[in-house]
Design goal:
The structure is a single chain. By secondary structure, the protein is mostly helical. The protein has two domains: 47 residues, Homeodomain-like (Arc Repressor Mutant, subunit A); 110 residues, Tetracycline Repressor, domain 2 (Orthogonal Bundle). The chain is built from nine helices and no strands. 71% of the residues lie in helices and 0% in strands.
Amino acid sequence: MSRQMVRPGGRSARVQASVHTAVRELAAEVGREALTVPLVAQRAGVTPSTIYRRWGDLQELLSDVAVERLRPETAPDDHGALSSDLAAWAEQFLDEMASPTGRAYVRDALLGDPDGSNAGQCSAYAAEQIDLILTRAAARGERTPGVEAVIDRVVAPMMYRILFRPDGLDAAYARRLVADVLGRTDS
């Protein structure tokens, strides 16, 4: 059964925060493979039934934590030009997603996602960041590709390589993808 995870308020928000914190702390202390719902519940100060009722199972909980951790914490930096803004963002995205922690979060986000909503949320995070970069560039009078063109020509190849062919992933790769999409500004 799929549950839509929203940012609740009040007690529900406190439960979510304490359970998410418990997952992150325990994963760091004992390893992800050793996590169990009772262990997380004990650390979070809730009953296992609270976790089962809210998340269904451990994989859905791990997926929810992963999606939250994949949410960008800040807006992309403004370097004053589309090419440098997009290149810096792509390099950071690649660095974060290709790291062992990033790969684990991507895996968890997708494994506990039977209806595809987590994948959609993660895609929306990237699209929002890209849209902000493109909007700033357009306000400066720069010609920009569309958000979907950047997703298709920068994000998608990086994610494919992160998941299936992780060799050769470096800042130069990200910059080449950005240069390619900016050479073709027809979205």
